[in-house]
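Re: your question from the hallway

Yes, I did run it. Sequences:
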Amino acid sequence: ARRGAAQGSVPVMESADGAARTMPSIGRLSRGPPFGRAQGRFGLSPSGRLLPPTPRSQENADPQRTAFLLCKQWTLYSVTPLYGFSNAHLRDYARLLSAFIAAEKQKGLAVEVGVELDIKVAVSSLPDLKGSDQDQAAILVQLSLRSPASPKTSEEKLIWSGWFCCVSGDDLSENVPEDFTCLPLFLANGAESYTSIVGSWFQKTFDCCFRRLAISPLNLSWMAAMWTGCKVDKTASAMELVFSVPCLPQPLDISYAIHPEDAKALWDTVQKTPGEITQEEVDVFMDCLYSHFHRHFKIHLSATKLVKVSTAIASAHCDGIIKFLQSQYLTGVLMLLTELAISQIQ
Amino acid sequence: MQRRQSSKTPKQPLQVHYKNQTDLSAWRKGGRIDPEKSVQNHQSPKDQKNYSKQESLELALSYFEKVQDRVSLKKDNVLQKHLTTVESIALQRGLPPEGFEILLNVALSGKLADTVNTHLLKILIPASVIPETAVVSSVSWLCVSKCSGNTQLLFLRWLITVFDFIDHKEQLHALYGFFFSFLQDEKMCPYVCHLLYLLTRKESVKPFRIRRLLDLQTKMGMQPHLQALLSVYKLFCPELVTITLPGKMKTYFKNSEGPWKAAINTVRRRNQANSPVSQPLFLGTAQPKSRKRKWSTQLIIPASSTNRNYLEEDRKKNRVDLYSTNESFPVEQLQTFSQLLQNIHHLEFPSQMGSVLTSPLLLHYMNCIKDESIYLRLYYWMGQTLQEECTWCVADNNQYEEEFKNFLETVYKTECFLQEGFPSCEEFLCKSLPLWDGFCCRSQILRLVSWIPLSSFSEMKSHICDPLAQLFFTSSLYFKCSVLESLKELLQNWLNWHVIHLDSESDSQVHSLNTTLSGLVNVVAELIHFVGWISTVALRLENNHTFLLYFILDFYETVCDMYLRYNLPLLIMPPAGVFYPVLLSMDSVSLNQLCYIMYRYRTNLVAAKENELSKKKILQFKFSSQTYQEYNQYIIAMVGCLWTSSAFQKDIHPQGLRMDDELLKKTKVQEFKNSFNIVYHPAMMGYAVLFMQQAWPDDTTFNFSLIKGKKWNWYLEYLYAQGLKGLKVFIESSINRVSQASHSKA
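Structure:
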C-alpha cells in the first residue's frame, strides 16, 4: 500500500479525489465508522511510503510565518475530529477559552466572558501548514501573560502554545461528515497544566479526545531513514540515534552518532526507487548501521530499543516529543506525524 | 426539572390533585365531586367529623380574612382557637388552595404579632397546590416590608420548599427582577439565590445581572449559593459567564426545608397523592475524581452537559428570526421519562456524547434519532477510551483494573439497552484479544464478544476467533464454558437482529455484501462451524465433562431451531465429535437434551422440506442434501442405540459406532447389542433400577430383561414422569411405535 502523492502528480490526484468525495457516504448500513477499514486498522504500518514531497512552502508560503514552530520541543497528541468547530468563530473561542482558563485557575469563582484577564488567549489559523487542499488549515492557540505592572503596554509574555494540524490527512477527512473538523495532530509547548486546561476545554466543547502520541521504534527507524535522504543546504549536524538497553537494573542509553554524509551515502546505496521508501529498505539501512556498530563495539543494537532520532531535519523521541529544525521539511515531517496520529484514532 | 415542566403544562398537576380531592371547594360539596370519595365518605364514620372540621376551617379562614388590627395572641382566645384549628387541619390533611392567599396576606401584612406570623407560616402545608396569585400577592407584601426580617426569611424558605407545589409560574417569573433585587440584603441573599436558582430560565440571564452577581462575588468572596446561581447562569449562557466548581462541594444551599418538609411528606402520604417531588440539584459539572491521572484520561464518563453550540445558534438567529423562540432543553435538567417525552422536539445531545452511557433517558432518545454524527462522536470517544484505559494493553494501567471493569460493564449494559454492538468495541476486541491473558476482566470481555456485529464478523474472524481459540484450549473448564456461553449469545443476538431487520430489509435499497441473506447465512454458518470445532476439541481435552456438554448443547439448542424460530434458511448438525460423546454420555440430562435437540432438528427439517415442496417457485435457499443425510445418519445411530439395540450394526456414520461382531465379542460383554438402549444405557440405568424397585419390589436380581412388552411402555411412562421430556418428544416424533412394537422386546 503506497500512499501519498509525488509532487508532480498532486493536481491529478486531487481532482480524482474531489470526484470521489462528492459521492454520498450515507449508504452505509451499520452505524459504524465511515472509514475504509482495510488500511492501518490494526496498527499495521504501511509497507511503503513516499518521501515527503518537496515542501509546498516554496510555492505559496512564507517560511517566516512558520519559523516560530522551529527549534522548540513539541509534545505530540492525537485528536479525534472536532465536532461543531468552525473557523469563523476563532475569536469567540479565544474569549471563551480565556474565561475558562481563569475559571479553572480560581476554582469556584465565576468569570465573565469577554473581560480582560491575566492570561490572554489568541486563537488563529495557520493556512500554510497543509498538505493537500482537503486539509483543514492548522489552528494555533497561544496563551500569553499580561504583565500586571503595566497593563496598558502591549508587552505580553508567551507562556504556552499549541497547534492542531492535518497534513495530507485525506484518509480521515474524506470520510467524516461535514460537522466534523479533522485536525488529528496536536502539538503543545509549555506547562502541562495549561495543556491540560486547553485540552479539556476542547474536549468539552468539541467532543473530541486527546491521547498522547508515542512514536514506536519502528516508526523512529522510518524517520531516521527518511530524514537521512533529505538534502540540507548548510553543513548539517551529525545524525544521532539513541538506544536504550532493556532489562537492566540501571538505565543505560547508547548514543550512536553518524556523520550525515556517511549516512546519506549508505542510504543512497540502499534506496532503489527515488522518492519512495519501502519497509525493506528501512530494515536494510538500520541493519547496516547495526552491523557496523557491532563490528566496533560487539553490541547488538537490534536487541535494544531505539528511543530517539536526531537529524538536521528534526529530532524525535519515542515518548512523543518532536523538534523541527528545517522549515522546508516542516510539512514533510508533519505529514508522517499526521499519518501516525490518524492510525492512533482509527 | 419540575418547574419548567409544570410551567409548560400548568394544568397537569391540578388534574392529578383534584382526584385526591382535598381542596376546599370539594369539601364544601361534601365530596360529591368524586364518586369514589363520596362513597367512602358515606361509609366512613368520620364523615360527620370531617364535615365539622371543614366548617371550622372555613370559619377560621374567614376570621383571618377579616382580622383588622394587631390582635394579641395572649389576650384573644378567638385568634388562639382559629390558629389551632388551622394548624391541626394543616398538619393532618394539608391546607386547600384557597387558604393560602388569606393566610399569607395576614402573615406578611404585619397586622398580627410576629410570633403569630411565624406560627402561621410554619403551618402552611399544601394539600394539593398553591395558587400562583397567592404567592404573587405575598411578594408584593414583601416589597413593602411591613413584616419583620425574620418573617421575610421564613417566607422565602417556605417558598423554596413548596416551590414545586405552585400551580403556575409565569407571573412568578415576571417577578424575577424583584427577587433579584433582594440579593443585596445580606441575610436574605442565600435564600434569594436558591429561589432564583429555581426560577432562572435562559431569558432571565442578562449581562447586567451577571455583573451584579460578580460584584457580589467580589464583595462576599466564594459563597456556595452564589456559585450555584452562577453555574445555572453558565448553564444557560456559557457565552457570557463561566465557572468551574470545586470538586469537594456537596451542598450549595442552606437547608431551607425547615419545619415543612416532614409535614408535607406526612400529608402527602396520607393523601397518597403524586405530589411533586422536589428535584435534586443538577450541578453535575464537578466530577468525582477517583484518582489523579493525566488530564486526557477518558475513563471518567463525562457528566451530561448542554451542547455549547450557541455560536451556531446565534448565527442562525440572525438569519432566521423564526427560530429564535425555539429554545432547547438543557440535558442537565432531564430527569424523568415524561420530561423526555415533553421535550423530545427540542432536546439536544450533551456536549460530550460519552455521557449518554450513564443516562438511560438519553439512550432512549438516541435510539429514535437517526443522526450519523451521534454515533461517530460516541465511536471516537469510546474507541480512544477503551484503548487508552485497557489494563493489559497499556503499561502501568494494571492498578486500575476495577475501574476499567466497571467501564466495560457500563458499555456492555448500553449495548444490551440499544440491542446493538458498538463498532469501537469490536475494534477494541480485535486489537486487544491477541494480547489478553484470558483472566483480566474476563466476564466483561466475553460479554462484549457477544455484541460483535454480524456485518463485520467475517472480516474480523481471524482477529477474534484465533486468539479466543488459543485461550480456549489452554484455559480452565470454566473459561471454556464462559466462551461457549458468550458465543451462544452472539449467535442469538445475530439471529434476533436478523428477525427484526427481515421486514425493513426488503424496502431498503442498501445491501452491503455481508447483510444480504446469503452473506448472513455464510457468517452464521462460519460461527457455528467454529463452535463445533472448538467444542469437539474441548470435549476431548476435558474428558467429555458434563458441565461442558451442557454449554455445548445449550448452543445447539439455538442452532437446531434457527429455521423456525428465526426464519433463517440454515441448519447445521453438530459434528460427530459432539454428537457421539453426548449420545454415549453417562449423564441423563445431556442425553435428554440431545433428544430434544434432535427432535427440534427434525421439526425444522420437516418444515423446510414441506415449504420446498409446496412452493412452486424455486427457493433461493435450500438445505443441502448433506444436512438431511447427516441428520438421517444421526437418527439411525440414535434409534439404534436407544431403541432397537442395533447401533453397532446399523450406524452408517463414518465416525459412528459401527463395529464388527467379531470385535464386539472380543470385549466379552454379554448382550452387547442392547447395552445402549434406554434400559441399559449408562445414563439411564439408574432409572431402570428405580423402576424395577417399584415394579418388582421383591426382586433383588435386577433382571433388566424383564422390562419388555407392556412393562416397556410402563417404563417409558415412568421415564417421562421423571422429567425426561426431551426423550418423550424424541420418541414420539422419531420412532414409529406401531412398527417398532415387535422390536421393543429386543
